[in-house]
Amino acid sequence: MDTTSLHNVVLFDGLPDAAIEDIHRRCSWRRFAAGELVFDRESDKLDVFFVVEGRVRILNVVSEERELALADIAAGNYFGELAAIDGMRRSARVVAIEESLLASLAGPAFFQAMQAYPVIAVKVMERLTRIIRDLDVRVTEISMQSESQRIWAQLVRLAELDADGGGWIIRDVPSHSEIAAWSGTKREQVAQAIGDLARDGIVRRRNATLVVHDLQRLKLMIGYQNR
After folding, report:
1. CA-CA distance, 188 to 225, in Å (whole number)?
2. Is 1 a member of any domain?
3. Most CB contacts within 10 A, which of 82, 130, 150, 175?
4. Sequence-separated (6 or more) residues with CB below 8 Å from residue 131
5. Residue 80's domain is classified under what CATH number?
6. Mean pLDDT, rounded, of the chain
7. d(Cα 93, Cα 38) in Å, to the nearest integer?
């Protein structure tokens, strides 16, 4: 695979090769190390970024001790379009969570591409609609659930069927810091919330896996409603 190609970016699906090459020529390219800041909140840079390799995380700062993870952007996807569209400062920060190769397109050039290729504009609108819907759910959870409930809700989202045992498990359990970022809490609160579940027999550690013995009870504890 050509590691400096935009052909695998979903935003450009259906575009003629010539159009993709035109956008490619306008891009700048940079490789980011894991943990490196791509841009910070309040940055006035308007570029749109395309993840060619790796993965980045969009974060919002809640306090000096707490960050809220908003989304992980994997290879083939893009981010930063809000600033390109409205010309305002960044509303969140972005950090590479593994070594990543990013292509960036200046905001005005991105806006021109949306005008020149309406299929891009339609896909951007569809993505913005999904973002709004997802944020509606997150805001509701944060406003209506306790910190423990938000942590438990994140565990429910991570749980998957165990093909071998038939129950529910969380493979390669994320660190307490990771879970805290997604639930808008602190590491200490994550440790306590998971410990409470273990004492009640709802979950059990099995090496790097968390076995969920009673998923239905866990859902009831967080007020789960078919999410």
Report:
1. 27
2. no
3. 150
4. 71
5. 2.60.120.10
6. 90
7. 8
